[in-house]
Amino acid sequence: MNKIIMMRNEPLLKIDLDEIPKVKSGKVREMFDLGDSYLLVATDRISAFDCVLPTGIPRKGEVLTQLSHFWFERMSDITPNHLLIGEADPMPERLKPFEALLARRSMIVKKAQPLAIECVVRGYLSGSGWKEYKTDKTVCGIRIPDGLTESAELEDPIFTPATKAESGHDENISFEKAAEIVGGDLAERVRDLSMRIYKSAREYAAERGIIIADTKFEFGLFEGELILIDEVLTPDSSRFWPADQYEHGRSQPSFDKQYVRDYLESLDWDKSPPAPELPPEVIAKTSEKYLEAYSRLTGRELD
Fold first, then answer.
1. Is 218:117 a contact under the CB 8 Å cutoff?
2. Phi, psi (5° rounding) for residue 122?
3. Residue 112's CB: how many other CB atoms inside 10 A?
4. pTM greater than 0.85
5. Is position 169 within any domain?
6. What total number of domains does the chain contain?
7. What does residue 280 show for φ and ψ, rounded to 5 degrees?
8. Rg of the Cα atoms in the chain
9. What end-to-end distance do the CA atoms of the chain give, in Å?
10. Structural domain range at position 169
11. CB-side exposure of 261: number of CA atoms within 13 Å?
């Protein structure tokens, strides 16, 4: 038991499974081929300014996975998703030898074909949207009323798709460009689904003291059906702000990488690899924020 506890208190940065082929290693997730399905495993890696840091955040992968399970189930009346096994279901026999490693941080999912766009919904003026608005009074080319300040709530949420990038920044694109990439019908369907999911989640989170300022979704096709894939409404894919500290006109505290970004901004680092190590206090505070987001949204602690 003590060995397991020690393992969970140490960040898990890399995962390899004997005789199970790894097909992809992203900034955070590892993907393995199980034949008729994929195994997605969330590590504790963290990236900032498009660099994967050498230091991980303990239990981050568990939070991302368990929060995704929570939202996939909650949003299943709006759209089907890629999950094949629920969070409480037993692990397949071939994965039993790795159970301690995979527990709470893995998903077995359908082999969907991802759409070539990210589906971003913004409800508040922040990040790259705020930078663009200051110069052009637009967000991703969409005209926004004058007179708004940083972190201001938009009158209506907006759909701002982006292209996917394997490395570096995703590129914001117009809805018309998204329609060229995936087709007009699919673009309209994912826009409408994204808006419905965001509005439902925003209302739910608000009752629990969290503002979802913006978020991104991924969709894919499986046997001709459009489904929600990847992760959903996590601190990595969304901006979560504590409602009791919200004040427009400034940047907001958040339940994500804020402490990491703030620390890195304080260094004489040019934001090119290799990234610097994180000190223990930044690691601990960031882990605490991820866990707090999970407990606030789900109403339970992550065991």
1. no
2. -120, 130
3. 21
4. yes
5. yes
6. 2
7. -55, -40
8. 19
9. 14
10. 113-254
11. 12
